[in-house]
């Protein structure tokens, strides 16, 4: 008995240390008969795991920091012909939401559960995680990922690009590897584990070890690797379906892309962000992307009118946007390589594409003047000094030398047309609303039409399972699973007029918050921000300054109804508190708590500055 106990303990320790063992599915109980002799016995083998008959390949594509009004597939001013083609074949979802920043979106997407429920209310980074169940940045085993579910149902599983939910302290070649992609259901991974990396000198990982990048753009490398994974699998098992999670670093900073792409946009943005917003808004209306009754909000008070900028500012800012646009179009091109390859090997028609055009709204991290490189971060500069510095490096924008390249705040608002505010603003649609495309030649008879049902990133996992005929498991590797919290969107595919089934949803990012129910939305902005260039950072926070919007009649959140309907505000605030408690969101940690060192990851007592200095340069 003692020996069996020791063996069991050894097995558990081994499974916890080696992800290959952790990925092995639980063996079923033996169902044969064991007699004293072979004649008295009956042999038995477990049936091999097979995907449902005619199950499609699955490709999830998650872009980064794009904004609702950027891609031409949704009326934006940046060419994305591949996304347009996928959308034209399938369906465009225009009322789909993310969490407002990258790590919570990715955690929710991969698990089908709210980010706080799976411990990623903030980040998995040492500097931005905290020792509480909703905040420690560690995906629990009882909240299995889509890769684990599909792998156990006969799929090969691959991930390339940005992962973003591996704790910093685990992200070395010493592991442990159970929270690396290969420990969360992916047969292979090629990309980076953090939130941001240099596109030419990435902090690159393959499977369970760091590898040396080859100098090419990261998007080209991950596309090549994805094609290799697909071809290798199809050669060995032609009828076995695969799942590819394609998550490029694009278009997160640093905005880096070859001049052949950015130069395509020379002069295209000289008219400025005010003209861009109006043109995109008009196009979105004409294409039916937004309602005819929608009204474009005023330019944010923190963004100057383009007409009032100096010639030097206009020249600089237009170049920032040319680079960003080239970066997005190049990313679309790389997605096109995957699409074309699947056509070449006769796999395209039976591939389900799920494309989320951004893990949050467009980024406000570029400061009012834009951002070129990291050297400027060592000594804070005034806006005038930053402008002078950036003008001196105009030719470096978009190149490998632009190690932090990001456009100024005005272009972030333009890229979020028609909505207000930016990435990390969980209170505003500009932070949380992103386009979604569902496309499957054999399974979705779409024509590019719009679906306006309310959706959230947690809905993608159950949608995928329903479309493939796979049930969410009760257990994975013997570990009982928590219920899926998302709602499948499959009901809306054949019924554009169907009522939304996802009826309520909370949002929270380091102080900013919102609660949605049946078209009503109560929200509370948080004025302070760790994000450089956050507007209103000197305004005092008032926890009672909730706003109220009726999204059924006020598509772009222009009219605050809080004073008119205080009882509705009270109702929704109570619902937010209920959801916060239900999903492990407490305590409500804010940007100020982070910046002032009130949280101490792993109890080490270090300040935020100390933690940042200790991080790998590619992750700072």
Automatic annotation (TrEMBL):
GO terms for molecular function: hydrolase activity; metal ion binding. InterPro entries: Alkaline_phosphatase_core_sf, Sulfatase, Sulfatase_CS, Sulfatase_N. It holds the Pfam family Sulfatase. Residues 1-22 form the signal peptide. Residues 56-470 form the Sulfatase N-terminal domain. Keywords: Calcium, Hydrolase, Metal-binding, Signal. It comes from the Bacteria. This is Sulfatase N-terminal domain-containing protein. It comes from Novosphingobium colocasiae.
């Amino acid at each position: 008995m003692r020996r069996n106990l020791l063996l069991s303990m050894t097995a558990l320790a081994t499974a916890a240390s080696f992800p290959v063992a952790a990925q092995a599915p639980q063996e079923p109980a033996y169902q044969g008969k064991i007699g004293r002799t072979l004649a008295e016995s009956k042999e038995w083998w477990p049936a091999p795991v097979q995907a449902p008959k005619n199950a499609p390949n699955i490709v999830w594509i998650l872009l980064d920091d794009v904004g609702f009004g950027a891609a031409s597939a949704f009326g934006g001013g940046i060419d994305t012909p591949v996304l347009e083609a996928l959308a034209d074949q399938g369906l465009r979802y225009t009322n789909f939401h993310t969490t407002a920043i990258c790590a919570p979106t990715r955690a929710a997407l991969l698990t089908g559960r709210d980010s706080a429920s799976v411990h990623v209310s903030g980040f998995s980074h040492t500097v931005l995680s905290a020792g509480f169940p909703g905040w420690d940045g560690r995906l629990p085993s009882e909240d299995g990922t889509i890769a684990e579910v599909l792998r156990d149902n006969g799929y090969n599983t691959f991930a390339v690009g940005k992962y973003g939910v591996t704790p910093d302290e685990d992200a070395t070649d010493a592991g442990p590897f159970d929270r690396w992609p290969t420990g969360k259901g992916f047969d292979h991974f090629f990309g980076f584990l953090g939130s941001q990396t240099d596109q030419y000198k990435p902090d690159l990982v393959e499977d369970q070890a760091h590898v040396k990048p080859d100098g090419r753009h990261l998007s080209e490398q991950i596309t090549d690797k994805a094609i290799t994974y697909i071809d290798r699998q199809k050669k060995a098992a032609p009828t076995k379906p695969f799942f590819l999670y394609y998550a490029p670093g694009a278009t997160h900073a640093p905005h880096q892309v070859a001049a052949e792409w950015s130069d395509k946009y020379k002069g295209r943005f000289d008219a400025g962000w005010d003209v861009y917003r109006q043109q995109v808004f008009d196009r979105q209306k004409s294409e039916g992307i937004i309602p005819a009754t929608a009204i474009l909000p005023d330019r944010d008070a923190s963004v100057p009118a383009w007409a009032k900028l100096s010639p030097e500012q206009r020249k600089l800012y237009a170049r920032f946007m040319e680079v960003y646009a080239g970066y997005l179009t190049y990313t679309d091109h790389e997605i096109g390589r995957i699409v074309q390859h699947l056509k070449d090997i006769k796999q395209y028609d039976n591939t389900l594409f799920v494309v989320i055009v951004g893990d949050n709204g467009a980024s406000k991290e570029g400061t009012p003047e834009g951002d070129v490189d990291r050297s400027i971060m060592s000594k804070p500069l005034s806006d005038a000094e930053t402008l002078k510095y950036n003008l001196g490096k105009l030719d470096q924008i978009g190149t490998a030398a632009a190690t932090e390249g990001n456009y100024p705040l005005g272009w972030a608002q333009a890229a979020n047309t028609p909505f207000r505010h930016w990435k990390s603003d969980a209170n505003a649609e500009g932070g949380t609303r992103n386009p979604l495309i569902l496309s499957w030649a054999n399974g979705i008879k779409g024509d590019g039409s719009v679906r306006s049902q309310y959706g959230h990133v947690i809905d993608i996992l159950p949608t995928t399972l329903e479309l493939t005929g796979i049930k969410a498991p009760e257990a994975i590797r013997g570990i009982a699973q928590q219920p899926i919290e998302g709602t499948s969107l499959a009901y809306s595919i054949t019924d554009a007029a169907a009522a939304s089934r996802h009826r309520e949803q909370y949002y929270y990012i380091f102080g900013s918050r919102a609660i949605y129910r049946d078209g009503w939305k109560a929200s509370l902005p948080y004025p302070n921000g760790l994000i450089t260039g956050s507007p209103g950072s000197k305004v005092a926070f008032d926890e009672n300054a909730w706003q109220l919007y009726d999204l059924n009649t006020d598509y772009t959140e222009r009219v605050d109804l809080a004073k008119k309907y205080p009882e509705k505000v009270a109702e929704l605030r109570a619902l937010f508190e209920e959801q916060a408690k239900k999903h492990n969101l407490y305590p409500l940690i804010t940007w100020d708590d982070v910046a002032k060192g009130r949280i101490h990851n792993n109890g080490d007592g270090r300040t935020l500055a100390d933690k940042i200095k200790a991080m790998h340069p590619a992750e700072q």
